[in-house]
């Protein structure tokens, strides 16, 4: 039997069966943790904060390992999702959602008390992700589902904590907004000055800020996004003519030169190789 490929996230429902041991194991597993309390009460403490989670409370931890976890009620049950953004990014999950990666990396330690509708929505999605985690092979299906889940999480977080962006430094906010604008417009606009104008800053300042926050210049981010989109379309057997048109290149030769510069292969050579590897 062919061995299933590993998944860069895990989703579990924790109930009365030794919940503390299982929860501590999850908290030590990855850099990003989501906890959603189904029933009961849970206390979490780190170096600076202590929060009590009750039913329908959502807790998000990014890069933080709690010092103490205590379940206050014997009926406590909760959902936990753990995720390693670096590992997932390398596997392609965040290549289509760079703004979400920035969002996850800057969450820190936060608690949100959800209304019944939003709590039910997240609980349903977590149940579905758990089913995929245990029963499905590594596939585009769970890629799509977890991307969708994270997008919903982002929207819910901003609905309840809209001041989050203003708690960041100005440069973090600018880099985040650049990634958002890039995700919307990269197929049409390839020049840094377009994004600088959209964000009301100079191209040089935008380049400096993006490099300081992401380790890449604004131009490198734009080019990387185009390369990733090109690779994806080539693997899906899209014609090269369609790809350079969709991605906003002026001519086929312009696209081929760009692609070979970044991959050392022509688009047709890469497509043939990708098809052989399937």
From TrEMBL:
SMART domains tied to this protein: HTH_ARAC (SM00342)
Bilayer-crossing regions: none
Keyword Signal: no
Domain HTH araC/xylS-type: 176-273
Alphabetized InterPro entries for the sequence: Homeodomain-like_sf, HTH_AraC
A molecular function GO annotation: DNA-binding transcription factor activity
Highest rank taxon of the organism: Bacteria
Name listed for the protein in its UniProt record: AraC family transcriptional regulator
Entry keywords, A to Z: DNA-binding, Transcription, Transcription regulation
Organism: Sinomicrobium pectinilyticum
Transcription is among the record's keywords: yes
